[in-house]
């Protein structure tokens, strides 16, 4: 999921549970603009950093432990990354989202659109 600076959902892609999130990051960022992209250690890859750089944004991503040369990040800016966590927590107030009762991805995706609209209305 991609959120704006206020923690409101902009884009999301529903994937299978075993798929890593980083595989969808370039698709989520396509066509977006901004000064910085904040993400956690799971998104630390050279390819994603290049995608963010091509957008003209700063990658605020802590380095993964396996990285031989640590890439520094702005820790003050990184503190704002909790906004995506807040967005997920707002969505998890709805049992249908938190437990993912829907058998089909299209039904779950439709409910996520509804939740996103409700969050934007706040």
From TrEMBL:
Record-level Gene Ontology MF annotations: DNA binding; transposase activity
Membrane-spanning ranges: none
InterPro entries: Transposase_11
Top-rank taxon: Bacteria
UniProt-listed GO biological process terms: DNA transposition
Domain Transposase IS4-like: start-end pairs: 2-117
Residues in the signal sequence: none
Protein name stated in the entry: Transposase, IS4 family
Lineage, highest ranks first: Bacteria, Pseudomonadati, Pseudomonadota, Alphaproteobacteria, Hyphomicrobiales
């Amino acid at each position: 999921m991609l959120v704006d600076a206020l923690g409101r959902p902009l884009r999301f892609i529903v994937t299978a549970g075993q798929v890593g999130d980083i595989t969808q990051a370039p698709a989520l960022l396509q066509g977006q603009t901004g000064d910085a992209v904040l993400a956690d250690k799971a998104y630390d890859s050279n390819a994603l950093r290049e995608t963010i750089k091509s957008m003209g944004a700063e990658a605020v991503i802590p380095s993964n432990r396996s990285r031989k040369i640590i890439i520094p990040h702005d820790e003050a800016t990184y503190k704002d990354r909790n906004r995506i966590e807040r967005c997920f927590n707002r969505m998890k107030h709805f049992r249908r989202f938190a437990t993912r009762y829907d058998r089909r991805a299209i039904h779950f995706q439709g409910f996520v659109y509804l939740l996103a609209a409700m969050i934007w209305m706040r």
